[in-house]
Amino acid sequence: MVNLDNAISIAVKTGKVLFGANSTIRNVMTGKVRLAVIASNCPDDIRKRIEKACRLSNIPLIVSQRNNVELGRICGKPFSISALAIRDPGDSDILRLVKENV
Asked: Does the reported pTM lie above 0.70?
C-alpha cells in the first residue's frame, strides 16, 4: 500500500507538480496532468470545478485526508495548498495508488 503523504512528497521532490486551484483546473482541462489532488477542506466551489474538470478530462482525482495547511507542509512549502496537479510523478508511486483504489 502506497502512503499518499509520502508519494506526494516524493513527487514534489523528483517530478513536476503544479500548485494552486487555477493552475490545477487549467492543466486538467488541457489534459497535461496525470492526477489531481485536493485538500480535505478545499472550498466547495473550487472542489466542484476541479471535480468537473477531472470528470470531463478523464483525469483521476484524490481527495486527501489532510487540510490545506498540512498539504502545504507535506509539499515542503511555507504556504497552504488547496489543490495540486501531478504532471510527472518522478520517483513517486502515486499513480499506483490511483490504480489500487479503482
From this structure: yes
Q: What are phi and psi of 53, to 5 degrees?
A: -60, -45
CATH number, position 46: 3.30.1330.30
Query: Left (φ > 0), alpha (ψ -120 to 50) or beta: where does 63 sit?
Result: beta
pLDDT tens profile 6-55: 999 999 999 999 999 999 999 999 999 999 999 999 999 999 999 999 99
Q: CA–CA separation, 18 vs 12, rounded Å?
A: 9
**What is the DSSP pairing of strand 35-38 with strand 61-63?**
parallel
Query: What's the structural domain count of the chain?
Result: 1
DSSP 83: E
